[in-house]
Design a protein that fits this description.
Number of strands of chain A: 10
Oligomer: heterotetramer
Order of helices and strands of chain B: HHHHHHEEEEEEHEHHEEHHHHH
Largest interface: B-C, 61 and 61 residues
CATH class of the largest domain in chain A: Mainly Alpha
Largest sheet of chain A: 4 strands, mixed
Shape of chain A: globular
Strand order of the largest sheet of chain B: 2-3-7-6
Strand order of the largest sheet of chain A: 1-4-5-8
CATH architecture of the largest domain in chain A: Up-down Bundle
Number of helices of chain A: 11
Helix content of chain B: 40-55%
Order of helices and strands of chain A: HHHHHEHEEEEEEEHEEHHHH
Largest sheet of chain B: 4 strands, antiparallel
Distance between the termini of chain B: 31 Å
Strand content of chain A: 5-15%
CATH superfamily of the largest domain in chain A: Butyryl-CoA Dehydrogenase, subunit A, domain 3
Structural class of chain A: alpha+beta
Shape of chain B: globular
Strand content of chain B: 5-15%
CATH architecture of the largest domain in chain B: Up-down Bundle
Number of strands of chain B: 9
């Protein structure tokens, strides 16, 4: 048992903390308040972060990245998220798919896609799973139901897949230069058995971007609609086997499992920010002639915020370690579920601390609460809980 | 005699307002403009239409041109309006409550004669109570065991003008309805004590600055009011002690709680509709235990909240019910505030969760319901403060 | 007309019972014997004394020798009794409710003439409803989306005896009041259907086995009833459909909830007294914010619970209030069960926490309040099941 | 970062698991249901456990014990508590004071007291802090208040302290052979500055045992009253400096900090038991023709139970590691606070799972809930939370 960090981990943590403090935090609230959802991202920040290695951090050193381990990934995500949860996610969204590239792409594909990704500071990656009628079903495919799940149709035409359909709520849908797209390649079997992943560059003929979603929180991190009309994607861009999309990733910790850790680690950063805000406010705000901190109920709330946060930190680091050891368990998913409860309660308690101002709510405290509601859907709704719980009984 | 039947009048007015909301408000309320939390425009036209229905003058006595509604009836109306649009409900509830209080109890006959006709005539005539000062520090909880301290002196001063009348100087902040009010009741320190002074919105020296919505965290309309050498006629001072009445109009009122209930109800209704419509896992999601259970919890929250809010509303109009033992001795409005605010915010969040990603989209109402119920949860000094006020009563400090 | 005033009669009966509890029950209830959760003796003498006060025959019509109490009044009495002793309250509430139902609605005049005199005369005459069978599987929730299934056939059978009358065979389990009952209403399958059969406790072939208290998790008195060739006169079958009435008497009744409320109230009262008495940190602990806040939360829980339990009680007697829109369409008894059971258990735990180590001692009542409210929380199939029943209504399955 | 256990840790964990499964679990419910609170302990079990090393596990190897580290201690406490929380506490209560002996006793004292402790399988240790009017005040001494706190008076008479007064709720008060007694040696200053610890053997003249407390849970673990009437304790039995009781332990992880870890680790064992019971019941109990497990709400509850339990485990192991590294933080206290919330929610959820039986509650599930209420007072009341929270703002 060893909870200490090695030198490399500490170095990345420090670097992330500095970048977060000096570059992200000063612009976070302003980006949050930009009304146009397509204008919230700050490309200068992305470029700066990219130059520091955050965008390409998980690509292996041999392949030109930094090859940081999962523990370091968790640390960096939390540090960045402490300044702005959505900005942190903008970087780590690139990691999610970097993991998949290294786990499942051929050398030829790596050559074709990794090189431009590494070279261009504004090259961000996107996924493409959710559709209008495949939300929960994408996460927990109903067994035996051939109608459920992804309906974006891909048909073989020579050495190309021809795509027709739409994707919704797609992370980086409006800005990514490369997508990892889930397409239905067999309608005669259930979704889980008839889906394939394709690498889709932004300049794919027949692909167009739809609207940008206007979210209540996580505004720096953009989501968009994707439209495919007879879009042609080379078969050479296919990842893994045809109809094998949902079988990839078994035996590794990429994709799903990274996504679980990612949300848990990011939430931890928000919790850290909330704890800091609450303590700072309680010490500086004077009521009845004394700092708020002197009140028992204020101390109890701040104690609870820290208690929940440190428990989450302990769990997140355990999960990250398990990933580094290629240990599979329900922990990643459970930690993700827990992060929902934790981040929402901690940010809510932070609002309560700020109640003592008696008037308008602090904008920073409000932002943390808005950002953390995203977890309900991504990490803590009943589908995300049943998906994990189901494994316990197995 | 214990009886939970609403009167025929109450049921009728509820139906009327429900229809009005369905026909006039619903479509406008979900327009993306109105869902924008950062700076949604106040739907003045809707408020005026609701005024025409009599909802602005609801609590005025019938013989003074109103509907003579009691607090419970005001709650019924507020819930219905808020299920449509929380800002419409808030502006009207504030004017209606204040109208009942000012014209019904606080004004002299002379004052009433001067102000009532214009109030009745003009659908855009709103009222505001300006009591909070920028330096106000309620400070409940510090030295919880302290003896009750005196209220701090008001910094807004009404000085006797040499030529008669008052000259008012000072600032009032977070004044509900300030941007739309035509008449303010302003708490002022006078040479001989303190009191409420009636100040028309166009009095020279009175300026209103609307409080920015995003940072402001309020419903309806809210502003800061500055008085600089503001001249007010001598006969505009309200006489008598108004402290108890002011308490009735604080943010912790059952009517505000009913507005919160209306918001959560809208969230619930949307979730049930969607739950029956949206198919995942091969069937409507409401048919999944997990969603059904969640919606049941939300439904329970609404019922429980309504029950205690109505109890508090009735208690406002029936203060003797505590003395005779029909109700507990606790301050009922605080009880219902604490209990309902948390339940209703939770209800809105749970309802939104059923919508998946759409629950966070600004062009959908769910995120707004969350934000709105969150504001109610943190209104005033929040639940912590309300609980401490109850605790002080239990401990016998006051 | 919405009105929360209790009637003078209700206030008077509440005071009477409160005095009775203070004078007769309180001292006995905190005797170590009574605090022992493993096998406390039933305080029969106290139950008999309460019977003398008329609490056993509370719900009988006045012209039949009772007090004609409605469900709300029964709740008032149950809360008061339970604040003294939960077992006394439970036994009496069961007999009183069943008495109201059997003698008031279900028995024929002939049957009433046969059984009522003995019931009125004997303070130890209790009633029991025996409907649950060992194999009963309520199974709500499995295949939540299933269509409503038929009730399973009863395994307790009443066969027509050759010489007239019925011969009953079967087992009923977890029958409240079984060990003290002199008359059972037993659900049986007859050749032509099913119904309730009145069986005196001394009918040959009827045996009662008390259910062990510790493992049994019940309040009051509870037993298993076995019928072996049990002979019952033909004229003891109740006619008509009793399914709705049986539902009223399930564990999910507002009267049981009021008993739970009484227990939590006792915990609260003890904690407030102790909080004012116990000095730590240089002052009475109630003067510490943390304790004051906790007690305020408990006080709020009691007020909210009482409000919704009373609403549910009133709804039992005023079913038309749903149709006219005064109440929501949800099953009110389930709503108040779900909402109050959790609040009251939490309240008891929080109250006990104020006592430090004494909160876990068996010679102090706090641990018993926790155990008692925990039993209410897990009575029947628990809150999960109650919520699913509401969810099924929302989803429109039934 | 390393969450793996070393060989010694694994070996002790295995040994504890075996002892718990084979010896403790079979008698746990029966001991719980013994009505007489003085008869609940099973001395045969104590002897068996002692022979396996559990009673003396933390005494250093040099001194004749086993010298297990804090991580191992946490693992063992959790394993034993899974079978019976109170039995686990009976053993670990001996550790608490073994820690103090090694941290603060002189060599001469160690010689006099450790030897008999090591030699006698029924030699258990006891504390002696709480008094009728010093409960919370013992934990959080009110600064400046000379009337508050311990009132058991010790006056010097030659080379003896003469003791008069009473102690309440004392762990092992009725069975311990040696006590670590907090006595007031200066009434002119606040409790925190005027209290001394004495080693008090059971045969001290003038000491008698009072009643045995009848608790609703944790029945195997006994508490009693202690009465001192002109009891004479040699000055040679004093631990540390006169009036220095509350200053001992600074700079080490014994006493208070071990006590925090102890409760958190013990709670973890109860949670493990509850998770196991719930899963077992949900698989074996059939309702409506299907195992309960098939129901979504059952799965959600079991998922939540496991989520909370694993988060607590992560935090407990982190705290144990910090103790081994002599790192001081608020984590031990926060983990203890958290263990209250966790053990009570998890055991309550286990009751909910058992609700589906529709009738009498399972006795095992009931016992877990009763045992876990002890945490309210010991680990999670407002005093125990304010004590920890107060350190955050420092």
């Amino acid at each position: 048992m060893d909870f200490s960090l090695n030198e490399e981990q500490t170095a990345w943590q420090r670097k992330a903390r500095k970048f977060a403090e000096e570059e992200i935090k000063p612009i976070s609230l302003a980006r949050d308040q930009i009304a146009d959802p397509a204008e919230t991202i700050d490309w200068e920040l992305v470029k700066k972060g990219s130059k520091l290695g955050f965008r390409t951090a998980v690509v292996s050193k041999e392949q030109g990245g930094h090859g940081i381990d999962y523990v370091t990934q968790a640390l960096v995500m939390a540090e960045l998220a402490k300044a702005d949860s959505a900005a942190s996610k903008t970087f780590s969204q690139c990691w999610k798919w970097s993991h998949l590239i290294s786990a499942a792409c051929t050398d030829e594909q790596k050559e074709r896609f990794l090189k431009p990704f590494l070279a261009d500071d504004t090259f961000v990656l996107g996924s493409g799973q959710t559709e209008a009628n495949s939300g929960s079903d994408t996460r927990r495919p109903p067994p035996g139901d051939i109608k459920a799940g992804v309906r974006l149709r891909a048909e073989l035409d020579g050495d190309h897949w021809v795509l027709n359909g739409e994707k919704q709520f797609i992370a980086h849908g409006n800005i990514a230069k490369l997508f990892f797209l889930y397409v239905r390649t067999d309608f005669s079997v259930p979704f889980a058995d008839g889906t394939t992943i394709l690498l889709v560059p932004e300049d794919t003929p027949g692909f167009s971007r739809g609207k940008v979603y206007n979210k209540s929180g996580w505004r720096f991190y953009q989501n968009g609609e994707m439209i495919f009309e007879d879009a042609r994607v080379p078969v050479a861009n296919q990842i893994g086997e045809t109809n094998g999309a949902l079988r990839k990733g078994d035996g590794d910790t990429s994709g799903d499992m990274f996504g679980d850790l990612e949300l848990a680690a990011n939430a931890l950063g928000i919790c850290d920010a909330a704890c800091e805000q609450a303590l700072e406010f309680s010490r500086s705000h004077v009521s009845g002639g004394q700092p708020l901190w002197e009140q028992q109920l204020v101390q109890l709330k701040i104690g609870r915020m820290n208690m929940l946060t440190e428990a989450l930190r302990s769990y997140v680091l355990r999960v990250a370690w398990e990933h580094d050891q290629l240990i599979h368990s329900t922990n990643a998913g459970l930690a993700m579920n827990l992060s929902t409860d934790t981040v929402q309660e901690v940010t809510e308690l932070n609002l309560e601390i700020h109640d003592y101002a008696g008037g308008a709510m602090d904008r920073g405290a409000d932002k943390l609460a808005r950002d953390s509601f995203i977890w309900s859907h991504l990490a803590g709704d009943s589908v995300q809980r049943l998906k994990i719980a189901g494994r316990i009984g197995k | 005699m214990y009886d939970l039947h609403l009167s025929e009048e109450q049921l009728a007015i509820r139906d009327t307002v429900r229809d009005f909301v369905a026909n006039e408000i619903a479509a406008i309320a979900i327009h993306p403009d109105r869902l924008e939390p950062f700076d949604p425009p106040l739907p003045v036209a809707l408020i005026d239409k609701a005024s025409e229905l009599g909802l602005r003058t609801l609590a005025l006595a019938e013989d003074r041109g109103g509907a003579g509604a009691d607090t419970l009836t005001c709650c019924l109306v507020a819930e219905e309006l808020a299920a449509g649009d929380v800002d419409v409900a808030s502006v009207l509830a504030q004017t209606a409550s204040l109208g009942g209080l000012l014209f019904g109890r606080l004004m002299s006959a002379e004052q009433r004669d001067r102000f009532l006709p214009a109030f009745l005539e003009d659908n855009g005539y709103h009222l505001a109570l300006a009591t909070r000062e920028p330096t106000t520090d309620t400070a409940l909880g510090i030295n919880y065991h302290r003896p009750a301290s005196e209220a701090p002196a008001l910094e807004t001063v009404a000085a006797a003008a040499p030529g008669g009348g008052w000259v008012v100087d000072g600032i009032k902040t977070r004044v509900a309805n300030a941007p739309v009010a035509k008449l303010f009741a302003v708490s002022v320190a006078t040479g001989s004590g303190s009191g409420l002074l009636l100040v028309p919105h166009d009095a020279p020296g009175l300026t209103v600055t609307e409080i920015d919505r995003d940072g402001g965290w309020y419903h309806g309309s809210c502003g800061e009011v500055t008085f600089t050498d503001c001249q007010v006629p001598a006969e505009n001072l309200l006489s008598g002690d108004q402290s108890g009445d002011q308490a009735d109009l604080s943010e912790i009122s059952p009517i505000n709680q009913a507005i919160n209930l209306g918001v959560a109800r809208a969230a619930y209704a949307a979730a049930v509709d969607y739950g029956k419509l949206r198919v995942q896992g091969g069937r409507p999601i409401i048919e999944h235990q997990a969603i059904g259970n969640k919606l049941a919890e939300v439904a329970i929250s609404l019922d429980v909240s309504r029950s205690i809010i109505w109890q508090a509303a009735w208690a406002c109009d029936n203060p003797q019910a505590r003395a005779d033992g029909s109700l507990s001795a606790l301050p009922q409005s605080l009880v219902s505030q604490v209990a309902s605010a948390e339940m209703l915010h939770r209800a809105a969040k749970d309802a939104a969760e059923c919508f998946g990603a759409m629950g966070v989209m600004r062009d959908m109402p769910l995120q707004k319901y969350i934000h709105d119920t969150r504001m109610f949860l943190h209104s005033g000094n929040g639940n912590t403060d309300a609980k401490l006020a109850i605790a002080e009563a239990l401990a016998g400090y006051r």
